[in-house]
Amino acid sequence: MKLQNKTAVVTGGSRGIGRAIAKRLAQDGATVVVNYKSNEQAAQSAVEEIERGGGRAQAMQADIADLLDVRRLFAEIESSLGRLDILVNNAGWADFKVLDEVDEDSFDATFDLNVRGLFFATQEAARIMNDGGRIVNISSGITRVNSGVGSVYAASKAAIEAFTRCWSDDLGKRGITVNTVSPGGVETDLLIEAMRPEAVARMAAQSPFGRIGQPEDIADVVAFLCSEDARWLTAQNILANGGVG
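Now predict its structure.
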């Protein structure tokens, strides 16, 4: 129970990687806020799953792309839970299009959530976070490859990686670590819906393990970074992609 008496918030925590992270942090003893934008049923299901396993969690609605929602979320966390020790910035959006197909709405939606929303969520969290806290940003391995349809998404994730390095200096004096985890291909509902089976098979073949990642693979890395064992790690980007070159 390495996170006993800690309070964590996982943005976009109702599904996929975020849900696996919320479950793992609760398993390690943290009280977890499962943030969701609109799918209350999925968020409540995540909370119930955590509670069945003996953990503590509650769902809190907020659209991270909406700054008023962001401020309300962290005010609610402070008033209802009284402390914050861990922030996992997991909420994100991707719209894969080649350069000449990207319109302003798609560009703005990606940056409003992945960059602007994440920035101000972290600002609000840092104001109430206890010294010695943990911030983990979820980026993507796409920032390291030449993806012809991923320029906007990759740029938004590259901004997160820059934030990590800068914030580690801003917050290090308080003992707060700031790190990034960059997953490769992970088997989530969204990935399976977006990719053809043959594309998933090709992705799996790129790893020495012969498979794509599972949400729990990423959650375990995040849990380590949230623990006291990772106290000497900050400003790092952990490429959790199963060894894909």
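The radius of gyration is 17 Å.
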